[in-house]
Amino acid sequence: MLELKNISFNAENESGEKEILKNINLKIDNSFVVITGPNGGGKSTLAKIIAGILTPVSGQILLDGEDITHMSVTERANKGISFAFQQPVHFKGLTVYDLIGLAAGKKLGIGEACDYLSQVGLCARDYINREINSSLSGGELKRIEIASVLARSTKVSIFDEPEAGIDLWSFGNLIHVFEKMRSSLGGAVIIISHQERILNIADKIIVLGDGAVTAEGSRDDVLPKLLCTVDSGCRVLSDAGKEACK
Amino acid sequence: MNKTELELLKIIADMDGKAEGAYNIRSNGQLADRHVTENIDIKTKTDNPGIDIIIKPGTKNEIVHIPVIISETGLNDLVYNDFIIGENADVTIIAGCGIHNCGNEESQHNGIHTFFVGKNAKVKYVEKHYGEGDGSGENTMNPTTVINIAEGGYMEMETSQIKGIDSTSRVTKARLSDGATLIVREKLLTHGKQTAKTDFAIDLDGENSSANLISRSVAKDDSYQIFLSKINGNNICSGHSECDAIIMDNGKVSAVPEISANNIDASLIHEAAIGKIAGEQIVKLMTLGLTEKQAEEQIINGFLK
Question: What is the pTM of this model?
């Protein structure tokens, strides 16, 4: 169980200090949770605060009851938190195989490393010895990033906009990765996403807007309402959504 | 050879005292062992210290090892090695110099290697430089490589200096004929108060000749590196040089590229990037459970791999 208590975060901008997160309180158990909401609402900031990349100005983060608020990124990683970056980092020299091995925390056989890549739809043989640099496309880097989190298989896995930078066609395949993750859920999977197809497989949806939780609940409760709020009429895919919009 | 010398030999040339094929081991300025084959002859020079390595035309898939080891403190070793690679040959040459300096005087190795790569010959030249020892004596290496590649010839040079060399000045000069290709990959890591100078001067004289110089280096502690590269495109040719350096602590790196196109069809590119390890790289590896120090090590090992 991951618990956030009264988390606030400020950032400097031209006009002084801006409140990015305002007193966030959340409890995330071992389920498939999607955090959504408008751009600039504080979603990525929240994810980075959970991973320890950013430090909140106030509040507490508890993992299975243990206060991890002041733990480093490394300590949190070793306690069981994984984080897939929205924009994967480039490395000169480090190969895909190296990264997957580091993520798994042990020397992997080529076959094992390839399994993780196959899961994200990459033909492993073509990628295993590639350097993680700009010779790979944005979509390829993104898949490798997701594979690195799969290889860790931790209590909490956070994905910051896995769809960003991936074309719609490729993303269709990637949905299966998350569907599979959901069915074999061993811990909490937290995905920051705007994608309806991701929202559709959520157990729980949290809507973050202007630094605060504006809605929180099961998919069936939150999603239909969420789809109704789209300005240009009702972009509804499901019957439940249509009903809710009437 | 004693245990220290055998260990050095293993590090620089991956040899267990002997090797398959032709070899010449120079130890403390003297010939320690030599073996020649039907196609590869090694002769001691009569005018200067050093050897001639003569590879018969058409020799295929043979390897020559020519390591140099220095385990005496205060030794100043100078050698002139000439490599004559016959037409259509395809060979690998593994050189390297290891210094074990336990004394307080400077040990120095200056190697002047001259290559004559014959028409359509292909050669891979691997050179490792390594120093160790507990004494306060400095380890100095100043390799000079002069490369002449005839029509259609191809040379690939891999050079690395990863540890223990206090001062180095590495000069590589090359002249390429029609259709000749040169690829140089340099890896360098300096630490402590070490200094390293790399100086490339390449003349692309031949039509459709090409050169690609790739240097990756890391400067740690108070070390200093300077990378000079000069490519002259004197014909229809293509040249590319790339200097990529990571600086850490108080390390300093200068890159001074020079590309001169002396022909309208010369196409030359230089790229240089120097900077510390990107913070996001360290953070990414920390999210995988590595400490900051472990993350740095992984990034550097990968970079110099």
Answer: 0.83
